[in-house]
Amino acid sequence: MPEQAERIIIRDVTLREGMDVPGVDFTFPQRLKIAAALANAGVPEIEIAAPAKVDEDSVFAGICRDKRDLVHCKTSGLVYAFREKCFAEIELLAGLLDRVDILMPLSPERQPYREEEKIECMLKVLGYGKKELSSVGAGFPHALHADPEFLALACREAESCGAGRITIYDTDGKADPFTVFQVMEELRQEVGIELFFHAHNDLGMAAANSFAAAMAGADGLDVTVNGLGDRAGNASLEQVIMNLEMEEIATGISPAGLKTLSCLVEVESGIPVHPLAPVVGEYVFTHKSPGHLGITSLFEAFDPGVLRNDSMEKKQK
To answer: Which of the chain's ends, N or C, has fewer CB atoms near its CB within 10 Å?
Structure first.
């Protein structure tokens, strides 16, 4: 059993993944509002530049840079290594973001197709990124379906090339907590740099998979407010934070701000939070069964009082 982390870095990717939800198209003012709220809640890093959308997102990156009094957290973005414009995109993001992660899909069905070509391409772009950026990492989409030895090799090569962080993506959301734990535990033995995990929720496992990654030794997790994201969404910030809170693993994010964040993103995105949603759903602390009345605490995972943010509620009034 790996040593349990005392602290997990939370990287919120709402402003990237959330833009892939049908009907959601945050304006720059909306993005800035959400970014400022995330920073005020204690989120240490937000991902704001999407691969293949670097030109547009670089404008917002500049806004965040100029509004450091509001967005007082680190900003990051993504660039695909196998993309003709990747070097120009790195140059564009340099000086605007605190870090950029270079993506190399490990699926043999995505270019470049051969394993050696993937490694060669990744190292070439990483090397260029090291010259242009203050902080650069490597991200591996489809990592959990790759050959384990190839995944470990890719991680080791990225670290040797100067990557300061590696992100493992469960790209299609098919992973289970047992697999995630095993993969992350093994990778934790392979690399000495920051190791992050990015979950999708296609089978409803995103929060559980993220928790498993943390228990296996991950340094950080990608989350989105309300689980907003592509297809069935991503790991919910609220659910991940509360699960870590129950294990007394620090994130720097107070549960008292979760409901406020959830409501803000619900309004700005136009995507309603389901009443049965864990942690922030309307019915989470509602008891209809007569057997629950009088001893409701026996039927609740945590004290609802931890979600109260009296100062924020007064400010909104």
So the answer is: C
